[in-house]
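So, could you explain the following?
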Amino acid sequence: MAAPSNGIRTTTRCSTPAALKGPSPLAFGCLNEDRYGAFEQTDCARPHTFEYVGSWTAPGTSYADAGRDEDGVHAKCRILVARYAKVPVDGVLRYRTGTSYLVPSAEAWARGDRGIRCFYWSGGTKVTRSIKGGGTKALPVR
């Protein structure tokens, strides 16, 4: 194993899917914000306010424009939350979930990464289980 300058150890004996099973610095999972607003991983059974639900690919747009349409980005992320949690994509979806998102860095964008990472956001209420597949019980209308 080699340790590149960023401190992350890599290996050629492990596939990416295998690396994403269980706790991993490569997987977002359930999260909280630290006092600086950075995400910190946590077990989904522990109190948390965010959960990674998936990514969508931004269309051919500039990096500067990627996150400018915040309402549009949140709308696309809500659809990913609905699919992840197995709730309907309907007129009350926005009352079931908040969302947060991350846009790739300018450097990653320049290399072709257009993946907008989407997160369920509980609105500040601590939850103690994953919303994955939880349906309307996990995401009731608030």
